[in-house]
Fold these 2 entries.
Entry 1:
Amino acid sequence: MQPAARASRFDIGGAIKDALVATMVAFGLFSLMLGLLTAPGPSGKLEVSARPQLLAASLAVVFAGRFFVSLFARNSRFTKLGQIVPPDARNALKKLERFAAPALLLFALAVPVLFFSNRYLLDLGILVLTYTMLGWGLNIVVGLAGLLDLGYVAFYAVGAYSYALLAKEFELSFWVCLPLAGILASFWGILLGFPVLRLRGDYLAIVTLAFGEIIRIVIVNWQSFTGGPNGISGIPRPSFFGIPFNNEPEGFAALFHLEFTPTHRVVFLYYVILTLALVTCAVTIRLRQLPIGRAWEALREDEIACRSLGINTTNTKLTAFATGAMFAGFAGSFFATRQGFISPESFVFMESALVLAIVVLGGMGSQLGVAVAATAMIGGFELFRNFEQFRMLVFGAAMVGIMVWRPRGLVATRTPSVFLEEKKTIPAAIVEEARQ
Amino acid sequence: MSARAHDIILDVQHLTMRFGGLVAINDLSFQAKRGSITAIIGPNGAGKTTVFNCITGFYQPTEGMLELRHAEGRKFLLERMQDFKIAARARVTRTFQNIRLFAGMTALENLLVAQHNHLMKASGFTLLGLAGWPGFRSAERQSLERARFWLDRVGLLARADDPAGALAYGQQRRLEIARAMCADPVLLCLDEPAAGLNPREAVELNKFLRAIRDETKTSILLIEHHMRVVMEISDHVVVLDYGQKIAEGSPAEVRGDPKVIAAYLGVETQEVA
């Protein structure tokens, strides 16, 4: 008992030292950022004024925060907080986990019924599902194949513009354009892949980032084709397999003897994106059990070993890129038909970063984790819409928190694709991440 | 002569590998017989692994010819082939000095990845597999059987569903050999398979390698430091020092060679000359 007691004693001196160092760092940062304020004076000239109280207050907050963190974080009684949960409860939680996916799926199916009158929630649901689909698509590239792709939004843009242009210029229907947009996006995926796939890790990330920007800049500048910064408006809205959603005698509502409401279209869109997302998920799960999926994961684990076993790593990477890009293309064309208007502003780097954050947060390679992360991130963004200024602050703090408590994402285990006797999950610690 | 040429599986002629000014291998020629175990030995830095990397295509040799002959007469010039094609077409597979398993995948999955090319064809390059083609299902069952067979051979059947990274060191070494064998090679290149094994495990390894040679007719090329392994199981030994071949012959011949003793024990130069 004696050594344990010693280990759990509070080390006040160390904590004070720690807090002083943190305060000094904070002073370096805050002295100019918070301590000084430039504002136009009475004569209209910019004037510098000092704000010593604010500076002192924020330094005090940093000191106190760091003091308590180092006091309690060093204390074994508090670091083992996670293990205090009794084993019974943990087993029960594990059992609950098995029902998480079906429960989420049922909920997703029921949302339009439950919230039929709440247009805002339906729109939010569509947004969440779009990002879930993008996350699942990027998961193939980043989570399975281990290729860090920072330009994923490029394929989303290709899909959206493909649909917009095909539907407007050639008057093709959504269901014809959807596969075409997917094919075009995956074609661009391969085109990008060829020169780039010799690169690894950070270099690959930078080139894909640049590719994402190139696509956006081309869209902005090729005015005659893409409409430039003005974007494309008047994109045909989806119809119920040929039946338009309008208040005419041949419209959806009249044909099904319903009272006309614009919500019908929203509900239809919701189910379209739900189907697309579920197809993405199902295909990914199936691909994981096929040789190509296992080769992707092997590639993430060890590329040289793959080559020594006769696997053509270039082709394997290209298929991963093309498959991921295809799903982004699908999502893009859905985005275009939902909005009715697209412009380059929707395809900025921030979108790529957001999708990547969803994948990392969810746990690379995990379908359920990505879905939960997409809901949390996009839903969380909406929750903080009224506190616009603090949105990024909370978002950043949440990311830091997750990375501290669950560095491998929400679902941090890998499920084997095949088994002889028993399916055992593999702890994330020995699974390779995207950074070859 | 032609009958003799048929017996040779790997013919290395005038192999030279230079890295800038450094000559890692200098004009090395040797032959490996079909269905036999050939060992390459030599002190640290003698260029053994470089020879392996040339044979398996990870390096492109500066000069020389590496010819691999299949039993039915097909010939492959390895120095002109890419690494993965050497494994897929010429059917030369290898293990690595620092084990390169897919650590986050189970032992079983490791062995299935080794059968990738075969399974890819069976799955109609994924398209038929996605549709649940019955031909693919039976091919997959066969691959699982093959994996189960090799897991059993290396004594890891009970660990089939455990991640490769969680296995003990000796088990990982064995699993890597099993994985290389699952890729159905004619020539198996083992880079220090006995490194880090305890004496009992080394004896088991000897038995296992002999069994591979005798049962599957796979030829084995072996780099090894463990003299006990080399002397017990190899049919032919090539000794390298500073990138040059200094001796060649049966284990007994090589053991008595003064140049080999000098290279290993570091006798002063005038005594050797």
Note: Chain A is about 70% helix and 5% strand.
Entry 2:
Amino acid sequence: MAKPIDQYTWKDIPIGCVVTEAGNAHEYKTGDWKSQRPVVDKDKCIKCGVCWVFCPDAAIYRTDDGYYLANLDYCKGCGICARECWTGCIKMVEEEK
Amino acid sequence: MKDKRIGMEVSIALSEAVRMANADCIAAYPITPQTHIVEHLAELVADGKLDAEFVPVESEHSALSVCAGTSATGARTFTATSSQGLALMHEILFIVAGMRLPIVMALANRALSAPLSIWNDHSDTMASRDCGWIQIFTESGQDTFDQTICAFRIAEDHRVLMPTIVNLDGFTLSHVVEPLFLVDQELVDKFLPLYKPLYALHPDKPITMGAFGMPEMYSEAKKAQDIALRGSYPVILEVWKQWGDLTGRHYHPLETYRMEGAKIVLFTMGSFGEIAMEAVDRMREKGVPVGLLKLRLWRPFPFEDIRQAVQGLETLAVLDRAISFGGVGGPVCSEIKAALYQQPKRPRIVSFVAGLGGRDVPPEQFVEMVEQAMKMKGKKKTEEFTTIGIRG
């Protein structure tokens, strides 16, 4: 989109709210929905990747040195990774903190 | 062809109008009293007289959903239904309006159940009043034929792009053989060019239709939709003017009959206008200063036409063929009251409900409405509405 959604007036909206640009969903960062974010304690992490398996939003990626971290642009803070982590190395932290 | 008047059932005439408009896709489910329309269209397609996809679906919800899909690809799309069928389409009615898909629908108006009724009134269309479609009511078979062709032209105009309903009274119009003038195919081809969609689903240029609208966007989208529906009004006038110039048959949002010197005026919508004309003639013979207003365009509502037409009138007697249960009574009358509320001078407005579920309203009952409305002069409190022709 050329400009943020809340700057469109009713006159700017294409007829029928058609989205004329294909594949523009990638510009939409859904991570701002979350109220908590996962924080990994690398000392406890065994690089097993179970968090990567269970993340329902494919927001977890593998780093070059083998750890697994969440892409916060897309992580919605559901906490499934923290719940499933075998070693308990993932803690959910309030967004404000 | 255009100079020869022929007898034809109105449903067949309407289907012939769809054939002449060269619709690309028809998806419909048969329901009384719309049945003859889809039957005849299915025959036209099967016989190769209309080059269109006819999609026989399993419900009206699917009928309009198919129409949404085909219209989105840029196909000229038609459907028809009645009563419970329209109710089953309800969800999709709003979707195609919001998506601005110029589908044309013939609605053979029929009462909603219960009790089960297959006969005519306006309760079906009134329950879907706010669906965002252009809504036209026809009075005669000729009117229905003409409006069906005009509806495609109006709906598909790039200044409009709105789905359009042509309302015709079930049985009263749909099943009646009327004398009417058809038109030449060349005239229709000239009047109604090929539909060129503004946006169309095509793999070469992918777009998204019917996307999600966040709270930051939804209100703006609805405002744009309302402005667009109101903005269709001048285009509708323009299309009717062109049709009138080509055929000699002129249509207006609000039709008037014997309004000269009228003090008390009947107000109707749909085929009952013709019976009301008969009643007005009889009363005029006896010197009653009565006239008639007939509403053709229900959405967008022609506020200014109505304000102009009622100037100087003493009493307006409005006939509704549907009830807003527990509310103000008749939906048409409630709209007229709202349209005139801010006017410094306005006539006394008396609301009548009659002709529900196929009940006839003979000319005598229009006379009764006029008499009752005149009696209300000077009365302080009146009922929300009065029923006519109901026992007890």
Note: The longest strand of chain B covers residues 104-109.
